[in-house]
Amino acid sequence: MKAIVDPGNVLAEGLSAIRSQYQVPAGFPPAVLAAAETAATRAPTAHVDRTDRPFVTLDPIRSTDLDQAFAIEASGSDLLLHYAIADVAWFVDDGDALDVEAWKRGTTLYLPDGKAGLYPPSLSEGAASLLPAGPRPAVVFTVRVAGDGAVRLDGVERAIVRSRAKLGYETVTDADLPPGFAELARRIAAAEAARGAARVDPPEQEVAERGDGRLALEFRTRHLSEDQNAALSLATNLAVADALLAHHTGLFRVMAEPDPAAIERLRNTARAFAIDWPEDQPLAAFEPRLDPTDHREAALMLAIRRAGQGASYAPWQEGVVPWHAAVAASYAHATAPLRRLADRYVVRAALAVANGQPVPAAVTEAFARLPKVMARADALAGQIDRAVIDLAEAAMLQGREGEIFAAGVTDVDARGARMQLGALPVVTRIDANGAAPGDAIRVRLIDADPGKRSVRFERVD
């Protein structure tokens, strides 16, 4: 779960209840753990030696499940991104205990107090993770990035790689990164702008203890290196999608544009935060100007992230161009196989088509089954996400009963008026009482109950 972090573990009791309610796995069955231990000893035999390339990783400093490592080199005016992805399929066979358990889970589930992994730690944080502890098997995607940010998949190979450094967003310096890193990210960002892409990456929220003993939701500083690093993954996923489309196969991440009602709610949210959004400016043009270091604009970015109609997965279909509105392109997930089940199969398909081989039947069959499995996993992750946010909001507001807050009505339906508090990243409902979308109102906090993960307000004007 990426929206809330709880460094002080002040939400421990509530998080335990969430884990119980949503049956978040506490570990793995013994047979799966045993299979992982055996698989971790499997020696790579189908991999070329690329340990001479200066790969590095860049992640949150405490991360140990490292899906990606990268090296960059110039090729005339182009840049070549060598993007090494954990070769999970080398360790997991179709139908084995690891595979069966992964199909049950679908994704790694993240909560502020820990995660429930897709694979056991002996793989996800050990033999398959691209840690600098030693050589690792990987699938290396070579992506050519032109001066205008256009991408093309030049090759895919199984390789042995060795990360030279485990870099962290919080501590990395320009000198730590390979030459061309910032320029490659700039090219990808320029191409996004030219396409009219509307990706939003709001900062994480943190639960902090204030000096008066109360809790507060604050936005963690988002580092430039995070956005630059995300560009590498985006470039690879775009190039993979194009390659799979050209070979009439694949599994794609698709998402429709936010509908007019969602756009109007976002405009009302902007009004609640006193953020100027010109009426004639579309969302895609407005988003890039938002500043994640401003708490109001960061909260609006979070609202935008949650306002879409929801992304899903779709297998290749004759005559259908899969489209992801936020990316403004066809898009595939291939770069996080330690954390997402679908990526393992997309990687296998890309490896096949890039080397002139048929896509394995098991992969094609998986593409047909995966949308339902991933939808179920994404829905569970979303429910947990919402529960954690509700818990954090209630904990933050507990003890402030009776206080009056400024708010803005974002929309009204049969369940009442949905409102956004003006000074806090809290969205909740209140009796409509004649309220209309866009109204500025004042509300009094009646109750905040972390145990029930609920807050209750009443309108005072």
UniProtKB/TrEMBL annotation:
Residues 47-356 form the RNB domain. One of its GO terms (biological process) is mRNA catabolic process. One of its GO terms (molecular function) is RNA binding. This is RNB domain-containing ribonuclease. One of its GO terms (cellular component) is cytosol. InterPro entries: NA-bd_OB-fold, RNase_II/R, RNase_II_C_S1, RNR_Ribonuclease. Pfam families: RNase_II_C_S1 (PF18614), RNB (PF00773).
